[in-house]
Write a structure and sequence with these properties.
This protein is mainly α. It has 19 helices and two strands. Strands 1-2 form a two-stranded antiparallel ribbon. The termini are far apart. The relative contact order is 0.20. The structure holds phenylalanine. The chain crosses the membrane at residues 40-62, 83-109, 138-157, 169-187, 207-235, 247-270, 298-324, 345-365, 385-407, 427-449. InterPro entries: Na/ntran_symport (IPR000175), SNS_sf (IPR037272), YocR/YhdH-like (IPR047218).
């Protein structure tokens, strides 16, 4: 991994890590569950005020050390090296994430397959078919999950650079074009204005107890921060890459994809009088299948089916490039610190991921779900909550404190100087030291005490 990315390869890899199911699946799901617009606003504020700031901090840690997360903190800390290196272990969070994330990509694989058959005719039919997959179809879930698992580990075993660069070059633009087409189509529906109201006219009374922490978790999740992915990729950041403009672009694409997905998904929810909060993790699948089944065939050409297949394939790749970036940090660490071969490191990680992923599947299946429920939550939800809402914000918080208070300001200034200086640098630095950490601490305190 010490060999550098090409300039464009780096940007694409980081964008590939960031853009994924966080935007396409988690964003609409959480927006639905948290009452819409006010949650969107909260997410946007936290993306800029916390996500963006910490993203640049993690990028600095990676670039200045050129090491895996644990060794990066160890190398850069002037004292208490061992203590700081513990923060690098937040990368374990990424292993938890990839375990349930691969299960979701597995659902996407199943939906690519569904695309070859007649599409559901109503939102109820569509919901029933997702419900069936989730709670009864253990075989499909395992087959799809295993397939995804093999693909991910195969790509990472080939080494990140060659594997990822090629995948991203065509994946991202095609996903974007498809979304624009689908948005255009949604625009012609009556549900569209309800969807944009739902997303854009803030109603703060709709925020629930957990909404703040969920929005923070989502902001971290969709930017891949707090679990070592950005540090790891930035360790191979080529010199003379304008990482500021790349970061701004990535954040912009990230937010836009979430909003576009939200508009499309909720248009179809409202069009068919569905309830945005009701479908849970199945929201995008249920709603999008209705969109596709509404598209009329052109002559013999089943346009809806074709679009469904192509769209879910694009989503599949968006997920894969993110999943890869979750496995790479720990792999890189095991190689660096224990002299493991890449293969040996991956076999070890693969065991853990397969085991946890299997438990996630079983935690939604009718006959096994009761034994995998703790504190009223499924194993899947617990994994998501612990990794996304606790480990990511905490990893990010310590990263911010480390860069803001432990690293020398001069070193950062030199690193940033060609791309961001003067007042902009100072504002970032101020946010990094005070505003972003405070926001994370307050939101966590709110969750615990209020
Ligand atoms: N950012 C990715 C997404 O939005 C998820 C991710 C989380 C990637 C953590 C890497 C590390 O889907």
């Amino acid at each position: 991994m010490n060999e550098k990315f090409s300039k464009i390869g780096f940007v694409l890899a980081v964008a590939g890590s960031a853009v994924g199911l966080g935007n396409a699946w988690k964003f609409p799901t959480l927006v639905g569950q948290n009452g819409g617009s006010a949650f969107v606003l909260l997410y946007l504020i936290l993306t800029l005020g916390v996500g963006f700031i910490i993203f640049l901090a993690e990028l600095s840690i990676g670039k200045l050390s050129e090491k895996d997360p644990v060794n990066a903190y160890y190398t850069l800390a002037p004292k208490n090296k061992r203590l700081w290196s513990l923060v690098g272990f937040s990368m374990i969070g990424a292993i938890l994430i990839v375990s349930f994330y691969s299960v979701i990509i597995g659902w996407i694989v199943k939906y690519i397959y569904f695309g070859f058959f007649p599409l559901p005719k109503s939102i109820d039919e569509s919901a029933a078919s997702f419900g069936n997959l989730l709670s009864n179809d253990v075989i499909s879930q395992f087959v799809c999950f295993t397939f995804v698992f093999v693909v991910i580990f195969y790509v990472v075993s080939k080494g990140v650079k060659s594997g990822i660069e090629k995948l991203n070059v065509w994946m991202m633009p095609s996903l974007f074009i498809l979304l624009i087409l689908m948005l255009g189509y949604s625009f012609s529906m009556e549900g569209f204005s309800k969807a944009s109201d739902f997303l854009f006219s803030p109603d703060f009374s709709k925020l629930g107890v957990g909404s703040f922490l969920s929005a923070l978790g989502l902001a971290c999740f969709s930017l891949s921060i707090g679990v070592g992915s950005i540090i790891t990729y930035s360790a191979s950041l080529p010199d003379k890459t304008n990482f500021i403009s790349s970061t701004i672009n990535i954040i912009f694409i990230n937010v836009i994809i979430g909003i576009m997905m939200g508009l499309i998904v909720f248009t179809f929810v409202f069009e068919f009088n569905g309830d945005p909060a009701q479908q849970g993790p199945g929201l995008i699948f249920v709603s999008l299948m209705n969109l596709f089944s509404n598209i009329n065939p052109i002559g013999f050409l089943p346009l809806g089916n074709i679009l469904a297949v192509v769209f879910f394939i694009a989503l599949f790749f968006a997920g894969i490039t993110s999943a890869i970036s979750m496995i790479e940090p720990l792999t890189f660490y095991l190689i660096n610190s224990y002299n493991f071969s890449r293969k040996k490191a991956l076999v070890l990680i693969a065991f853990v991921v397969y085991f946890l992923g299997s438990l996630c599947i079983l935690s939604s299946i009718e006959w096994s779900k009761d034994s995998l429920e703790f504190f009223g939550k499924s194993f899947f939800d617990i994994l998501d909550f612990v990794a996304s809402n606790l480990m990511m914000p905490l990893g990010g918080l310590f990263g911010a404190i480390f860069v803001g208070f432990v690293l020398k300001k001069e070193a950062l200034k030199t690193l940033f100087n060609p791309y961001m200086r003067g007042i902009f640098f100072e504002i970032w630095y101020f946010f990094l030291r005070f505003i972003s950490p405070l926001a994370v601490i307050l939101i966590m305190a709110k969750q615990i005490f209020f």
